[in-house]
Amino acid sequence: MSEYIxxxxxxxxxxxxxxxxxxxxxxxxxxxxxxxxxVGLVGESGSGKTTLTRILLGIEQxxxxxxxxxxxPRDRFTAEHRRDYFNSVSAVFQNPYSSLNxxxxxxxxxxxxxxxxxxxxxxxxxxxxxxxxxxxxxxxEYADRFPHQLSGxxxxxxxxxxxxxxxxxxxxxxxxxxxxxxxxxxxIANLLLDLQEKFSIGYIFVAHDMHMVRHLCHRVAVLxxxxxxxxxxxxxxxxxxxxxYTRRLVAASELRSLEPEEERxxx
Amino acid sequence: xxxxxxxxxxxxxxxxxxRPWLRLRRRPGRRPWFSGTVMAIFAFCGLFGSVVxxxxxxxxxxxxxxxxxxxxxxxxxxxLGTDQLGRDVLSRLLxxxxxxxxxxxxxxxxxxxxxxxxxxxxxxxGGRLDAVLTRVADASMAFPVxxxxxxxVAIYGKGVTVVIAVLVVAAWPQYARVLRSEVIRIxxxxxxxxxxxxxxxxxxxxxRHVVPNTIPTLLVLATLQxxxxxxxxxxxxxxxxxxxxxxxxxxxxxxxxxxxxxTAWWLPVVPGVALSxxxxxxxxxxxWLRQALDPATRR
Lengths: 267, 299
Fold this sequence. Notes:
- Chain A: Belongs to the ABC transporter superfamily.
- Chain A: This is ABC transporter ATP-binding protein.
- Chain A: Keywords: ATP-binding, Nucleotide-binding, Transport.
- Chain A: One of its GO terms (molecular function) is ATP binding.
- Chain A: It holds the Pfam family ABC_tran.
- The complex is a heterodimer.
- Chain A contains 11 helices and 10 strands.
- Helix content of chain A is about 40%, strand content about 25%.
- In chain A, helix 5 crosses helix 6 (about 150-165) and helix 6 packs parallel to helix 7.
- By secondary structure, chain B is mainly alpha-helical.
- Chain B is built from 10 helices and no strands.
- Chain B has helices spanning about 5, 35-50, 90-125, 125-140, 145-155, 160-185, 190-195, 200-240, 250-255, 265-295.
- In chain B, helix 7 (about 190-195) crosses helix 8.
- The interface of A and B includes residues 93 and 100 of A.
């Protein structure tokens, strides 16, 4: 069971509203990612996808249950664990226009993790940034640019380069293509697959687009109202959905592909 | 077609429509000649005014009273004329600039620092502390500055320090309110979340991400406040609760000079023009600074 690098074990999360009401965002969720695999996380808005990823990333604390990293629960982390965790678990967010600090140059953004650790001199950070830029197919001279000089797709490449800085084992991808147009998001998808092949990174891929999940992911988990209703290999879950909700999701995605607007995009 | 239009860089031939008469948007990369020069002169006089002053600003010489400026028929000895006590107006203007500069710098730096600190506390903590700080800021904004000045002067007496203190009390809520919403806007951006994912703590996020991104707003506010502080010092001194005479300040000079508007116009006009020009320049300079510091318009 513990082949997962990063996993949520029986995680529940409730939020307390201003007037004392409680919202149950997650209920007893078991979810994990192993090395080199891509796990899709699907579900409608408000189903708890983002909350789950935020808990896995340590931004949010679960109300009950634990997050384990390489088998060690988060609350039993030593300083050594913490450093390993911050180096090995990374993320790429949805909106490339707000995920890069507009006042920093790209080399500085990409290697921010190294300056948090306060161990790398500037020259070394720049060299690493240039290395990472070439990995995401951006020219080295971009290192000294500012984010506003880049297009959305290029910014997302920079965000991926930042995610790769410390050779992570897990990257949480929170709808990384949703702000990009179709051709650019295909390029980003290919880039992510190439990187996975090269470094055998485990991806958690939060998605709306069922086609993307079908083409990219090995496994998929379906979230509904804070609970995982179905989880397994993509072919099983999406090919032969057991739960009514999954069936509706699949049907909806197939319906969408029949719409005339879609046909014009792919003639 | 006139040759002037043809030689204009933005003629229709260049593919752009002809420039409207009233150009509201300034060209990027343009240097702030006017405001920069005036601000530089103001800063210089503010620092070295009493050194370069040709006469002792407080020296009374009744035989030389009410001499007009040199361009209005006066003598070159008193370039901007003399007041009713025969004191050199130029020297008083220059030493008065020191008061204005000190007050403006003090009020802006201290007020801005307090405002930013409160904004960070309120915007970052949220909850009860945020609510309390916001109410305190609102309450202090509702309190009239002049009344506050009278109270403080009644307790501590007059002086430059008191003027600065009054202006700091009046100014910090303005910074705090605007910057608080900036802080909240910035800290919810994904690059701040990402810094937490990478193990950066609150201090890291504030110093590296939040504060640098509030700088443009802070600078624009600060330059506007320079203008307001100079005016406020003038107003307080004019009302007699600012810098105590006989020390020269622009507000004092205006207050003394207003009785001579009909007979010796230069007494109120000279400090008035200096004050207006400086305030105007401060506002224009702030405008330019905002553009120059915005990375989206930086080349």
